[in-house]
Amino acid sequence: MNIHFALMFFSILFSFSISQEIEKQLDVSMTAKWEKTKLIAESLCFFGEFKKDQYQCAVNQINSLEKFSDSIEENIQSFKPCLSESDQKFLQFNLQYHVFSPRIAFYSTIKDNFTTETFDFEPNHKNIKYIDFNSPVKLPENTIIRPITKLNPDKNPQILNGYGVELRPFKYSMEYGVKDPSQLQKGSLSILNDESYEYIKKFEESEEVTFDNLVYKHLESYIMNSEDPLKELKEVVENWPIAMKKVYQSKIDENSQEEEISESVMTLNGRVIPFETFDPFTFSSQIFEIQKIQKILTEKFGLTPKKANILMETETRKSNLVIDVRGDHIIWLNNLETDKRYSKYSRKIDSLFGKLTEPPKVRHNLVNMVLFIDPSSSKDMKLLLEVHKLLEKGYAMRVGLSPLHRNNNENQIKALYDIFTNYNPFKYVSLLVKGDSIKSAYEKTTKKEYSEDFSEESEEYISLIDSFCEASNINETAIWTNGDLYTGNDLEDKISISPLETLQILRNLLMENEISGDYLSFILRKRHAVKRLIPEISKIRPISTKISQEKIEKIEEFIQFSKSINYQKRDEEKSLVTCWLKIYNNKASIEEKIDEFFKSRHQSSVRLSFVSEFPSLVEQEILNKNNDAVLFLNGRIFYFNESFEYFDDLFSWQSLLSSQLSETIEDEDLLMFWSSYLLSLNEREIEIKHFHPNEFNPDEKFALNIDGELKSLEVKCVIDPFTKNGQKIIGFLCHFSDLSFGRISLHICPSTRDLKIPKSYYRYVTDERALLSSFNNSMIYSILLETPETWMVEQNRVDCDVDNVLGSDLQNGYRYQFEYVLSYLVVEGFSYDLQNNPSENVQIKSFESDTTVMSNNGYFQLKTTFPTILDISLFSDFSKGNFEIMSGNKIVFDSFNWRHFSVRIQRKTSKIQRFPYVDDGKIHVFGVCSGRLYERLMKIMILSVKQNSQNSTTKFWLLKNYLSPKFRSELQKMSLEIGFEYELVSYHWPHFITRQEEKQRVIWGNKILFLDVLFPASLHKVIYIDADQVVRTNMRELMTMDLHNNPYGFTPMCDSRKETEPFRFWHQGYWKEHLQGKKYHISALFVTDLQRFREMKAGELLRDYYNSLVLDDQSLANLDQDLPNYAQERIGIYSLNQEWLWCETWCSDETMDKAKTIDLCNNPLTKAPKLKIAKERIKEWPGLDKLASTFEEKQEKNDEL
After folding, report:
1. Separation CA 918–CA 299 (nearest Å)
2. Where does the record locate the signal sequence feature (predicted)?
3. pLDDT tens for residues 1063-1092?
4. Nearest 10 degrees: CA dihedral of 764, 768, 774, 779?
5. pLDDT at 244 over 90
6. If 0-12 CB within 10 Å is exposed, 13-18 middle and 19+ buried, where does residue 950 land?
7. d(C-alpha 1077, C-alpha 830), whole Å
């Protein structure tokens, strides 16, 4: 006892001494909008979902307790009789991250409305009882216990963890002075003990070093010589700005070679866990899914645990339909293997295995693209021009043409043929790029007159392409890349996206196989390419089951069904294809065709059963019963009618996946089950990856291997420690290893040769808060949060400006608090029709929010304050008049798990009914701001709009994500006193749209990328105005302006201030060539016709352009401005009169008096702070600023009271 007391006293004394050394501290925390949940209640929810067979045992243990403990360790001790050692670790993981706290909030929201409905995550009992667990209580037997808590509590909210905090240097603020000098930084709390400070202090004692690319080897030496390598690695990567000095002191072998670069990836028993969307809540559910499937494989199919794990890590390729289009009909523009212009390219393909933003410059035709285009179509020819631009930039891919023969384009095809076979095709395409017609470009290239006297070979060529099109069934504009054929409206985007997608496929193929022959032949052979398309098959969008997510009882029923039914038709050899066929109409005719298939020669071995019903997990996916038959085929569901006759092609296509598995799996039922399982994972965008056995060998690699209690659970991770993902994942894995739950194999390896040390401090929050106790006092930082995909957060209480944290402004001896609150939960999903095609421009709503479905992929997102059951309905006259919801209208959202829900929405008739736009007479203004200075400027902008539009109702739509609680409070008072409406809007950046890391670029992206989905469907027009703008006119004029069928209107950049001409990048180089005489517009003010914007799918086009351009570090320097200007060819811009926007940087002084708005543009010449420009140049600004400050003064007085 005395020894324990002495140790405790020493620990407290040590903690006190450490905290006394810390000068100042940043404290970041997160709370939910419900009261702290009891650990005993969370534990019971754990049993209800993950350990149903021990649920009654857990109830008995709870009934034996005299009090409920707040200690995780004591709670686990209470349930020891019910759990194995490994399950106790699993429970500890779930309690540490409060995985089931949202489940308790969910029960609290539904208790008055859904008293009899039960869920898959509960035990199979009929009785239900809601209990608050505020004190020990006797729980009834054979009853579903639903723990509840208080919503919107006055105190003691649930503290959350499982997110990242980044302290990032804010370059934009440092360069342009966007810090508000009037704002004082106030700390009020005493400094806390920070365990990391012991490491930080050690790092700070180091000497300055010169950085080089051997930093990786220094890191390896430093970490592998430490007592606790993973803990040391975590502290280094979380504190790179100061840790680097200490790392460099570690000696390395002078003969050390740079490590081979490798792509970063993490798997859980073979499942790829994407870094960007990782969170511990979804990770927990994936652990359970893994354990469930392991149980199925061992108990139902008799596999040993080792063989089950091997199967779960078996990597397969996607079974997309691949076509081989090679032949003499293709006119190749270039050849990377033989053309002189590529002679300096390396023949080594090492760079293929690093980070890819474009095809690697190697002397092989790794990417082969063929354009199937009509040369008489300007739209089709634009695809050729876009490809030409890429090739001119040095894009390393082989490009070919295969013209499509139409009634009126024979001469254009012949001209193309003669030029591409006898002259320089690049010169010809260059002329087309500059605006020449085909005729003009032909004459300039050939020095001959354009006439009908083309070569005999060109006549024969017409016959050749006709023969190919007839044989292959390719008759529409398309892009073909290494076997994949793309058609539709987004082909321009596929030009830059498809090469990267095919290179990923090639990379995986090369990891598994030795190449023989040329790369294209190798790819097509390994991907089982076909020679022709069957339209009835190639246009099918099959439906997969959700077998990977289903509860175990449904999976067991599915397997029993497969094993017990009679297969009336089957081939003699092992069946690669399992079919269950249910016929509704024309039974005799369909059965006859099936007979004919089995009697005739066919490509794949098949077994088929005629069934009267399907197992429940198949039946629940069958919604379209207007066809003659439904076919379940290796995990996919197909609808077809009597006229369908391409069974051989269909079965062959569906055997592509099972044929890859057949070498490993002998049992036909297991083969069918595993194909179904993998297709279900594929539907959820979950990939499988297998690592080479030497990947984590510490004798050959910088690798760490840490054992855990559960040997059958293994996390394998190749991670780049010089990235934000590295900072996040290493922080999590360090905590995961402390639990000793599963095995961890970690290979630390750079993903690029261009190493850059992170300039940010990072904390992955596994407890109640993130503490940052050391940083550069002269650096301005921004605090950025990296939260789970289901979270939308906002500031709740902050002691200083989150965008301008300057150490020298902070007082010594204080802790500065940054408290955030979980404002909304994000509900994501996809909406499809019964044919599995994405729903088009449908507006849907739930109780708290509405949105427009993205028509290119069917994606939607809604918001809810608390976990609940969402009732989905159609919103707007357009949607109600044209569509109906067929299924998925109830969404059970009960956890933080990231998942996608499915809603089936069918069009009522083939003809779309339009509804007229009704002007509500208001001025609608959209604004975005972050940081105290921009909030100050935003108030002035709002006042200037309102002062100039007294006769019109004005409503402001402000992006909620970054507003401070102080500004939100002032805004409410301003709206009441001055008389305007406002609404705070938000949109969670979807995972499939490349994310930004710089705070300013995140804000720019939010400003332009989500215009079609950010606002309610009832809003038809909105004006965006920068926060740093002063308005001098009635904005109603802009609301009613005719945009001449364009979706938006911008003001062109001024050309009148001559001294800034060198900075007008749009007058030179790339932009001058791209614009082709069009104007370059400024994005500080623009009006958007949302109805037109949505009709023409402008939002989706912008996002597609963005996704393709953002991969190039040189593109989109001014994201919100460059993007609409770049897209002008497809998304027209109406040019507003110059007087609509004036800024000092680009516009002359003489034009200022006519300006309708004045913008505080950044000036690259002076880099003067915005406040200085405003006070000197805008005469009304001081008065507006004084008026705005009165609201701040009133707010401060209220706060004091």
Report:
1. 63
2. 1-19
3. 999 999 889 988 889 999 999 999 999 999
4. 70
5. no
6. exposed
7. 40
| SS3 category, 832 | strand
The CA-based dihedral angle spanning residues 1169, 1175, 1180, 1181, taken in that order and rounded to the nearest 10 degrees:
50
How high does pLDDT run on average in the chain?
A: 89
Q: How far apart are CA 1120 and CA 1000, in angstroms?
A: 10
- The predicted model gives 798-811 an average pLDDT of 91
Helix (H, G, I), strand (E, B) or coil at 636: strand
List the structure tokens of 609. Answer: 């059963």
CB atoms within 10 A of CB 135: 8
User: Domain residues of the chain, as ranges?
Assistant: 38-148, 163-175+194-273+705-799, 331-527, 542-684, 823-907, 923-1192
Helices (H), 1069-1180: 1069-1075, 1090-1095, 1098-1109, 1119-1126, 1170-1177
Q: Is residue 997 over pLDDT 90?
A: no
What tokens were used for 1148?
């002359």
Does 16 score more than 50 pLDDT? no
The domain 823-907 belongs to what CATH superfamily? Answer: Carboxypeptidase-like, regulatory domain (2.60.40.1120)
Q: What is the mean pLDDT of residues 112-124?
A: 84
Q: Determine the pLDDT at residue 386.
A: 85
Residue 319 has a pLDDT of 66
Cα–Cα distance measured from residue 972 to residue 964, given in angstroms and rounded to the nearest whole number: 13
Nearest to 21 by CA among 809, 813, 817, 776: 813
- With both helix axes pointing from N to C terminus, report the angle between 668-683 and 647-661 in degrees, rounded to the nearest 10: 100
Q: In the 3-class helix/strand/coil scheme, how is 129-181 assigned residue by residue?
A: EEECCCCCCCCCCCEEEEECCCECCCCCEEECCCEEEEEEECHHHHHHCCCCC
Contact between 223 and 232 (Cβ < 8 Å)? yes
Pairing of strands 606-610, 577-583: parallel
Question: E strands, 340-497, where?
Answer: 368-372, 398-401, 478-481, 484-486
Provide CATH code, domain 331-527: 3.40.30.10
By three-state DSSP, how is residue 785 classified? strand
Distance of alpha carbon 399 from alpha carbon 502, whole angstroms: 14
Q: Does domain 923-1192 have CATH number 3.90.550.10?
A: yes
Q: Looking at the chain, how many residues does it have?
A: 1201
CB 770 within 8 A of CB 163: no
The vertex-835 CA angle with 831 and 837, nearest 5°, equals: 45
More confident position, 34 or 204: 34
* Long-range contacts at 692-697 (CB < 8 A, ≥ 24 apart): 692/511, 695/745, 695/747, 696/745, 696/746, 696/747
pTM: 0.87
Query: 996: buried, middle or exposed (CB in 10 Å: 19+, 13-18, 0-12)?
Result: middle
* DSSP letters for 51-101: -GGGHHHHHHHHHT-SS--S-HHHHHHHTGGGS-HHHHHHHHHHHHTTTTH
The pLDDT of residue 188 is 65
What does the block give as tokens for 204? 């700070």
For residue range 1147-1184, what is the model confidence (pLDDT) as tens digits? 999 999 999 999 998 888 888 888 888 888 899 989 99
| The pairing of beta strand 629-633 with beta strand 577-583 | antiparallel
Provide CB contacts within 8 A for 402, sequence distance 6+: 325, 329, 330, 331, 370, 371, 372, 465, 468
pLDDT at 461: 92
Q: Which residues pair with 168 in a beta bridge?
A: 782
| Dihedral-angle region of residue 94 (phi above 0 means left; psi in -120 to 50 means alpha; beta otherwise) | alpha
Pair of tokens at residue 82: 């019910």
Of 390-399, 793-802, 883-892, the least confident: 390-399
pLDDT number for residue 423: 81
Q: Using CA of residue 165, residue 171, residue 176, residue 181, what is the dihedral sign?
A: positive
Give tens-digit pLDDT for 735-747.
Answer: 999 988 899 999 9
Structure confidence at residue 194 (pLDDT): 76
